[in-house]
Amino acid sequence: MGTEDSNKSKLKDAILSALRGTDGDSMTVNDLRKEALLSVQGDEDDKDDKKNFKNATKALEKEGVLTLSKDGVAMLTAKGKKEDKRKSSDAEKDGGAEGGKKRKRRKKSSDDDDDDDDQKMEEDEESSPVESSKNKTSRLFVGNLPFKVDEASLNEFLSGKMTHVKWITDINTGKFYGSAFVEMESLQAAADVVKSKNKKELMGRQIKLNFAPAKPGTTWPPEKRESRGNERTGGQARGTGKVPMGEKPDGCLKLFIGNLSYKVDDETIKKFFSNVGSEVKRARFLYHKETNDPKGCGYVEFWSTEACDKAATLNGKNLLGRPIRIDWTD
């Protein structure tokens, strides 16, 4: 199998894995793309990765394992659900037998020449997550996490061998995706948890674990044990709630606001900041180009630096039931 075919197969598996990890076997296409591409170390903003995702979903739709609605929702079909159950059942039944087959193959090859024996050994190692030469990384992708998860509960789930965690969040809104990258204390620890914990439940959700080598140029592991962000940005703390702000520009008059309810409008923002005596000059919300749906973030400008400073003190405070994320911006 060529590299291109292999990557396509991995992406299709990631798509199905993401759908099978949800409660209703369905997700919006946008959320599915984010999770699937994260799982295979893709970039949701890269045109080629987007095209590959689109081709993979179309192929799966053609195979009859998922459907795509006009409303932008991807859902597993009865065939897709049935295949998942069959694979899980086969894995449980044949786990020991599969290991036996590998041992028999190794034994049979012992009478062949050295080259054949080495080839068989390589095949066996590649099929084992513990010894695989392909998986020489202690960095893992963890998907389908419950939103209540924290560093302590995730570390306990990963057998207490986790040294760092980076919670994956939206670059604009700061919203927690329900996935993370983690660093394990050793290659063996990483391989062990992938083998023993993949598809096991944490707080009622089936967790997905994959090896995830850091991309070139990525600082890994992070300086702090717990951080947040995505592959292009950093930060401290996870999920929602109060997020530490960055460095304040001189004479700052504008703030970034994220994790907003889609019901927020200009009047709501003005009333919110008026609670600390800050008068809003103008507010600008961001929207998705394709659908014109709100992104849940935007920018607010104030008449004075003093008003901007006061407004910044509301970072992490609730607005329409959501802890608003605030940061300085030029």
Descriptive report:
This protein has 330 residues and is an alpha+beta fold. The protein has three domains: 77 residues, Winged helix-like DNA-binding domain superfamily/Winged helix DNA-binding domain (Arc Repressor Mutant, subunit A, Orthogonal Bundle); 117 residues, RRM (RNA recognition motif) domain (Alpha-Beta Plaits, 2-Layer Sandwich); 76 residues, 2-Layer Sandwich (Alpha-Beta Plaits), CATH 3.30.70.330. Helix content is 38%, strand content 23%. It contains nine helices and 16 strands. A five-stranded mixed sheet has the order 9-4-6-5-10. A hairpin with a 6-residue loop joins strand 5 and strand 6. Helix 1 packs across helix 3 and helix 4 runs antiparallel to helix 5. The longest helix is centred in the N-terminal third of the chain and has 32 residues. It is globular, with a radius of gyration of 23 Å.
Shape: globular
Q: What structural category characterises the helix and strand content?
A: alpha+beta
Quote the beta fraction: 15-25%
The CATH top-level class label of the largest domain: Alpha Beta
**Going by CATH, what is the homologous superfamily of the largest domain?**
RRM (RNA recognition motif) domain
What's this, in brief?
With 330 residues, the chain is an alpha+beta fold. It has helices spanning 3-20, 29-39, 47-63, 78-109, 114-126, 151-157, 187-197, 266-274, 305-312; strands spanning 26-28, 66-68, 73-76, 139-143, 162-169, 176-184, 201-202, 205-206, 208-211, 226-229, 254-258, 280-287, 294-302, 318-319, 322-323, 325-329.
